[in-house]
User: What shape does this take?
Amino acid sequence: MKLPGRFLPLLFASFALAAEQPDLLVILTDDQGRGDYSAFGTPDIRTPAMDRLFREGMTFDNFYASSCVCSPTRAALLTGCHPDRVGVPGVIRHTPENSWGWLSPRATLLPQLLKRAGYHSAVVGKWHLGLESPNTPTERGFDFFHGFLGDMMEDYRTHRRGGQNFMRRNREVIDPQGHATDLFTDWACAHLAERARAKKPFFLYLAYNAPHDPIQPPPEWLERVRQREPAMDPKRQKLVALIEHLDAGIGRVLDTLDRLKLAGNTLVLFTSDNGGVLDSGANNGPWRSAKQHMYEGGLRVPGAARWPAAIQPGSRTARVALTMDIFATALDAAGVARPAEIDGVSFLPALLGKTDAGPKRDLYFVRREGGVAYGGKTIEALRRGDWKLLQDSPFAPLELYNLAADPKETTDLAKRERKIFNELAAALRAQIQRGGEVPWQPPARTAQ
Assistant: This one.
């Protein structure tokens, strides 16, 4: 039986203890800028489905990706840990010489824990946490996988990466026809129909690869934007069209929840894996920089939660939350005990209407990368309260900003505020040491 109606905030605490287990749907977009949806107030883009999630649920004013690039954020989401603590400080690629992560076999993933409470778990879309055994989705706790193992597609229609086909249904190689966004939407809707018939709780992780480059909207969607916004920069026209096409897919998924009468007790969490790419025309709001960088524009992402049975529509929270907190929140909502060793914390109290600023904690972000610009080294950021210490290049000095006074990170206070600088630098080194305990290459490569 699904929960009827909505409860007043004062009843939320008792509801959380007594409610039926919710179904769980996490929608993760790829490289979507903080300002690239119309509910943010951006006038040149139309995203009614995303806007619906914000309107019918809770808006997070301060949601952060756990890294400024793809694989680390995905590892954090599924493990509840800082990504270097589970062996994924950087992007996992199909070329071993340029792959900077390996999901630790000791890491416990969200579906493994949800299974104990009777949940069926599935991934539809982009995996990006391993291309082969033992790190494919069904070997790491998921019951079903229908999507793409790799980091990116060189074409949304042919789905290849480096000439290789990484599309799979479970462990079967498949070669479907069509735009990747449409395929992932179709597969997600079909899976929801199956779960409705099964009548047991489910977790669906729907990870779109849009709007990651190459920016390839369907022609009719691009023409629609060109007609509506003729003065828009052509690069932005293509990106807006790709995001609006993505939004239509999300709308189909939400409509499917409605049609199957699943929406009322489904907790939908929506966010992006990192900030948008400015060279592609992304809008990261007023914040500095973009994907790949430790400034706010690379880390701040959209964040929404909808759960009609429990979340007050049109609500919002200033609480700071990170991708890795989804792990703890999903477990709390499902009534599953959280492992003691995770780094993420549950934001379920905020969803249930409690005044909750969240715990006082340092926010840590890491990225390892190759090439001449990085040399296989890392960049990091650490935030404590309003203070943020970062190193955006492994060959550049640490920078210090006060985000309350300087949210756009324009004035480096590293030389002026030496006491705070030293305190945060010591805390950052401690986080780096923790991450260093976990190998981030497969054993064969580690032994070389």
In short: The chain has two domains: 9-351, 363-446.
